[in-house]
């Protein structure tokens, strides 16, 4: 089975680099499945899980925004934030989810509402990644 190198970098530094058979991620205009030999492209990412399929298991990362650069032999993810399940603090994510839900229930301007919506999506994404790992 052919593989491609996947490298994930955030403003805090590198998160991981390894070889995988397939990468699935959530670009702004839809889910993207990348196999070795994929045509080169750059796409903006949204809040979502990155699924990394290896020969024995599939690893997941919780990714929040940024860009993916695809080359035939390498996928580079430059994300605002990216966490492996083992690095996700569940309690923190639960609290962030509750906080965002509370904010969404109170009346506020559009910007604050959108900010709370994004915070809610980030928290749910982190909790989903943990649950599916
Ligand atoms: P919080 O309100 O808990 O800070 P957030 O969604 O606003 O959550 P981000 O702005 O997405 O946080 O991320 C800021 C930094 O904190 C990033 O480095 C991110 O990886 C880290 N981070 C955020 N939430 C968690 C979590 N639950 N577990 C581990 N790291 C987290």
TrEMBL record:
Chief localisation class: membrane
Residues annotated as domain ATP synthase F1 complex delta/epsilon subunit N-terminal: 6-82
Region of interest (Disordered), ranges: 81-105
Topology versus the membrane: Peripheral membrane protein
CDD domains in UniProt: F1-ATPase_delta
Stretches assigned to coiled coil: none
Gene3D superfamilies: ATP synthase delta/epsilon subunit, C-terminal domain (1.20.5.440), F0F1 ATP synthase delta/epsilon subunit, N-terminal (2.60.15.10)
Protein name listed in UniProt: ATP synthase epsilon chain
Taxonomic path: Bacteria, Bacillati, Bacillota, Bacilli, Bacillales
GN (gene name): atpC
